[in-house]
Write a structure and sequence with these properties.
Chain B: InterPro entries: ATP-dep_Glu-Cys_Ligase-2, CP_ATPgrasp_2, UCP005522. Chain C: This is Transglutaminase-like enzyme, putative cysteine protease. Chain C: Pfam families: Bact_transglu_N (PF08379), Transglut_core (PF01841). The structure holds three protein chains of three kinds. By secondary structure, chain A is mainly alpha-helical. In chain A, about 75% of the residues lie in helices and about 0% in strands. Chain A has two domains: about 140 residues, no CATH class; about 160 residues, no CATH class. Chain B is α+β, with helices and mostly antiparallel strands. Chain B has 17 helices and 23 strands. Classes of the chains: A mainly alpha, B alpha+beta, C alpha+beta.
């Protein structure tokens, strides 16, 4: 297929995934902000960390003077100046979809074009808390519909594989960004461990990746930071974990390599990454430095993304 | 205008409904038997269908509701088999002559030496591309896809109004109109034996493949090159690429290396053999033509000259559809085919000639004056519809540069029954058949695109000025 | 006269430029009064350099680097022996019919004032084409003052005429547009001109016009200096306008901002022999 077509499909799914991620970050921040102060809520830190996880704080500063619920929500949800705002993501996704209209199934096109049309009902309006909540729910539905229609209707060929690759690379990056901002609260520290503040912060992390219920199913014990980190990074059952994302990436890169009869740097890099994640132990990660591990992962995941772009998408 | 137009359903004289022409017998009966509400319902259904079938059309452009809606008229235009056979022979002859003419003016230039056409008309024309003088194109074919605009003024009177030999558009409407009619009026089709048009994409692909250069494999790679999705005809490019099953490429998808054109694919560079380009000459290669073109492929012309890739249509075909050259077409057809032209030209006054110019200046109010290519964008004058002031203004421009203009009498185009606000009424039509010229044969899908001027009395069928389209039925028996 | 040319065009790109193609019309051909003793094109980057002829009969080199390049210098060196032919150009490679040179182009597009100017020169005085063209050559710099500047700033002839000043390309385009308007085929010539004061360092290549005079053939006119080119001129390429004869046309993808530097020496022979 044309490199440009593959590139559009790859970025189309990345943007849809990113919109979903930003919606989840905002949802979690709202939840945390509504907690009583004694539980750590209402202090404003959640907006700073939402901004750090899902946006570019430097870009934010050029357009807003203060960090609070209103400004961060506006910046992350609707700002045209933020290339990763939900609005920018949906617009970019639709623009990519439009370029490869004939490579998409009607259902996929309807999902993304419908979202783009409906966005007008939200963007630029003064939404109250409830309406904003409905907006975030709607964004999550968009990604579900899009993903579902891709899964249910696309031919299983390279077009589908590049779509999946975009989603997986973006997911891995998103999960890593949360950990990059919040790793400190997972580390053991002097304060009374297991206090209510920590508990709510840990659960916030889980909610951001919709893994609050999953945690209990997987570990069947009370929430412990080491296990939260394990779930998000090394646990292959968890769809947003590093390990799961890399399982997906390796699978589809292999399918592409088989179909084209050629392997290259992206297969090699992704394979190395999967092997590393599979051979890793969470206690060892904590011992050798959680933050360093996450930072290295972000860089290497970017490297895999770039390798895919170079090997397939620019031609 | 006092002249009564020829009505294709009723023959001469619109009011004389007793003398229905044979071809329209069934249709007339159907029109009489169908209550007007029914037409209204069908028309809204047609619109819905266009949105659905034409989903690939409607989605482009942010103004989607206004984008596609070139009005569609649900009453088909009927052409009989003998009429079509005549047109078909005429079209083949004309396009054959155009190709021979192009081969000649980029080669031996016999027709100039023989005085068939003035040298400066060719050489001074910007569409005459000197780059094409140094090599021969595959199979000596320049125009592979032509859209010849034909008007009718009487039972047996057909004229060529214009030869579109660069990148004629509109074929997607022909295909979609038929698709919609088949869904809306299956019973009408059962009463007529209508020649199919659905095989056009196959015919086009066969034509394009036949033009592949010798270096191509047995399964040549054909692509459709579009200026991109901001082009007004992008939906057609996308529609055709989809129907042909070929990649729809933009310039950035192509590159050249060592005089070979490649397409960037996920499996690495792939050699391209035939480019159906929907991009004007000027933009094709920024190193040879307009340097500011970002829509073109640097080095494309080198690859073309070396014969590693075929462009359809060839570069430099614009010279043959220039309005000044048009006026010489009857002589050109005679010179190159040795036959009398089957299809006639509309009588044309060349303002570059003294006598003609004097006549035109004296009769501006009755003539249509058109500028020839590359003469500076002064537009055209439709004498009978122009004010005294407009005529005076135009006369000044004309006097300043008579070489840049031709004039034609206002033709009374034939009319066809059309469903308009007041009911079924006659409206003026023209016809654009699409002629495909391959190395193996000339293919013409029966019919073409009928354009209709929806305003009463209007002769302007262009969609930008209130024109619509109709399905065109060539009866098989 | 023996003229030695050293012409360096130095490109630098912000990032490595991919898909670089440079089309070079930088090689003179022999004709009466011009004999090319030696001529070569060198590049600082490895790549393919292929020669071909364009529709006008110019020698054109296509240069495509093997790898993305951060910088590229195109260096032209050569020696040409010239004779003064009083501007008459004979023995050139001619590929196109004469009426071709009456064609309008974007850069030679006139405006009504320029048309009036051309008609006035045609009707005032001797109607013989040669005399008329000489009058035109002297009238152009009076109407459009010559101001040296980079060729990239060239504007359509009508605009330059309106502005009343322009670079050598502009004056040449005005001359060509006027000649064509009164029915005389004319073309653009790109080349080099040795300075009258013997100074070898020259700011830029030069451009002038040629017009077709019945029974005489192509005759060169330099409206910038108000003279018919002499033996201090080297004629390199012709075109309908500057664009068609430009020494370098290029294209690339990526690379960011491009900076361009030109170093040019046009040395008159005697100095070269003495050294």
């Amino acid at each position: 297929m044309l490199s440009r077509t593959a590139d559009n499909l790859f970025w189309l799914s990345r943007y849809v995934e990113r919109a979903d991620f930003v919606a989840r970050i905002l949802d979690a921040a709202h939840r945390f902000a509504s907690l009583p102060t004694s539980y750590g809520g209402g202090e404003g830190n959640e907006w700073e960390s939402a901004l750090a996880s899902a946006g570019d704080p430097e870009a934010f500063k050029t357009h807003y003077s203060a960090i609070n619920a209103d400004t961060v929500c506006d910046f992350l949800a609707f700002s045209p100046h933020n290339p990763s705002s939900i609005r920018s993501c949906i617009e970019a996704a639709r623009e990519n979809a439009r370029s490869v209209r004939t490579a998409l199934t009607t259902e996929m096109w309807d999902a993304i074009n419908g979202a783009w049309l409906e966005l007008r009902n939200y963007a630029g309006k003064d939404l109250n808390r409830d309406e904003f909540g409905r907006f975030l729910d709607w964004v999550k539905t968009v990604s579900l519909t899009f993903d579902g229609s891709a899964f249910r209707t696309m031919l299983r060929n390279d077009a589908f594989w590049f779509t999946r690759l975009g989603t997986a690379i973006e997911r891995a990056d998103n999960t890593a960004r949360i950990l990059d901002v919040k790793y400190q609260i997972l580390l053991p520290h002097d304060e009374k461990v297991g206090g209510s503040l920590d508990y709510f912060q840990w659960t916030t992390i889980l909610r951001e990746v919709s893994a609050f219920n999953a945690y209990h199913w997987v570990y069947r014990e009370s929430i412990k930071p080491v296990l939260v980190a394990d779930l998000l990074m090394l646990n292959k059952q968890m769809p947003r974990s590093f390990a799961n994302c890399y399982g997906v990436i390796v699978e589809y890169l292999d399918l592409i390599a088989d179909a084209y009869g050629r392997r290259g740097p992206s297969q090699r890099l992704a394979g190395n990454m999967l092997a590393k994640l599979e051979g890793e132990d969470i206690n060892r990660v904590f011992a050798s430095g959680l933050h360093e591990f996450v930072e290295a992962f972000i860089a290497e995941n970017n490297g895999v993304g770039e390798a895919i772009v170079k090997q397939y998408l620019v031609g | 205008m006092a002249v009564t137009a020829f009505d294709e359903m009723n023959g001469i004289g619109v009011s004389d409904s007793a003398a229905v022409r044979d071809a329209y017998g069934q249709l007339k009966a159907w029109l009489d038997a169908t209550p007007p509400e029914h037409f209204n319902t069908r028309r809204s259904q047609a619109e819905l269908l266009f949105r659905r079938i034409g989903i690939t059309f409607a989605v482009y452009g942010d103004n989607e509701s206004t984008e596609r809606l070139i009005p569609f008229d649900i009453i088909p235009r009927v052409i009989t088999k003998p009429e079509w056979s005549f047109l078909e022979r005429g079209l083949k002859q004309r396009v054959t002559a155009i190709n021979l003419f192009l081969k000649d003016i980029y080669g031996a230039q016999e027709c100039i030496k023989a005085g068939i056409i003035p040298a400066d008309l060719v050489y001074r024309n910007a569409h005459y591309r000197m780059e094409m003088r140094s090599f021969r194109v595959p199979h000596d074919l320049y125009v592979h896809i032509a859209g010849i605009d034909i008007v009718r003024t009487g039972e047996n009177d057909f004229f060529v109004l214009e030869d579109n030999a660069r990148i004629p558009s509109g074929v997607s409407y022909m295909l979609e109109n038929r698709e919609v009619m088949l869904r809306l009026f299956p019973d009408l089709f059962s009463k007529h034996r209508v020649a199919p048009v659905e095989n056009y994409p196959d015919a086009l692909l066969a034509t394009l493949r036949s033009l592949a250069p010798g270096s191509a494999t047995r399964d040549p790679t054909v692509v459709l090159l579009t200026p991109g999705r901001y082009n007004s005809a992008f939906y057609e490019h996308s529609f055709l690429a989809d129907k042909l099953g070929v990649e729809l490429v933009e310039a950035s998808d192509l590159f050249t290396r060592d005089d070979v054109v490649y397409m960037r694919t996920t499996e690495g560079p792939r050699k391209v053999d035939v480019i159906y380009r929907r991009l004007d000459d000027d933009f094709l290669d920024p190193l040879v033509f307009r340097p500011d073109s970002v829509l073109g492929v640097p080095g494309l012309m080198n690859a073309y000259e070396r014969g590693s890739v075929t462009l359809a249509n060839a570069v430099g075909t614009g010279i043959s559809d220039d309005k000044a050259v048009y006026s010489y077409m009857p002589e050109i057809v005679k010179f190159f085919t040795g036959e009398e032209p089957i299809l006639h030209n509309v009588p044309t006054y060349r303002c570059r000639e003294k006598e003609a110019f004097a006549y035109v200046m004296d009769n501006l109010s009755e003539l249509v004056v058109k500028e020839v290519n590359g003469s500076g964008g002064y537009g055209m004058l439709v004498g009978p519809h122009a004010s005294k002031r407009e005529i005076d203004d135009f006369a000044r421009k004309l006097k300043h540069a008579p070489d840049g203009f031709i004039a034609q009498p206002t033709l009374s185009l034939s009319t066809c029954p059309t469903f308009v606000a007041s009911g079924v009424a006659p409206r003026h039509v023209d016809l654009r058949p699409f002629v495909l010229c391959g190395a193996d044969q000339i293919r013409i899908v029966p019919g073409g695109l009928t354009r209709v001027a929806l305003k009463e009395g209007s002769l302007v069928v262009n969609s930008s000025q209130g024109g619509g389209t109709k399905d065109t039925w060539v009866l098989d028996a | 006269m023996r003229i030695r040319v050293v012409h360096e065009t130095i490109y630098t790109y912000e990032q490595p430029a991919r898909g670089l193609v440079q089309v070079l019309r930088m090689t003179p051909r022999d004709h009466d009064g011009q004999y090319v003793r030696s001529w070569r094109i060198d590049t600082t980057v490895d790549g393919r350099l292929t020669a071909r002829e364009d529709g006008f009969g110019n020698l054109v080199h296509w240069f495509t680097p093997d790898e993305p390049a951060e910088a590229l210098t195109i260096r032209v060196t050569g020696t040409v022996d010239t004779e003064d032919t009083q501007g008459v150009v004979r023995g050139t490679v001619e590929r196109l019919p004469d009426p071709f040179y009456l064609r309008d182009t974007d850069l030679c597009a006139a405006n009504p004032d320029l048309h009036i100017f051309a008609e006035r020169i045609a009707t005032e005085g001797d109607g013989a084409p040669l005399a008329l063209l000489h009058r035109l050559m002297h009238a152009v710099p009076e109407a459009v003052a010559f101001e040296p500047g980079p060729a990239a700033n060239a504007v359509p002839a009508g605009k330059a005429f309106e502005a009343g000043r322009g670079i050598c390309q502009d004056l040449t385009h005005v001359f060509i547009a006027a000649a064509r308007h009164i029915g005389i085929p004319a073309r653009y010539v790109a080349g080099y001109r040795a300075r009258d004061d013997g100074e070898a360092a020259v700011e830029a290549p030069h451009g002038w016009a040629e017009a077709l005079v019945p029974n005489l053939g192509w005759v060169a006119f330099d409206p910038c200096f108000g003279m018919s080119p002499s033996d201090s001129y080297i004629r390199v390429a012709t075109g309908l306008d500057y664009l068609g004869a430009a020494p370098i046309r290029g294209s690339r993808t990526g690379g960011g901002t491009e900076t361009l530097d030109v170093k040019l020496r046009v040395e008159q022979g005697r100095a070269a022999i003495q050294s």
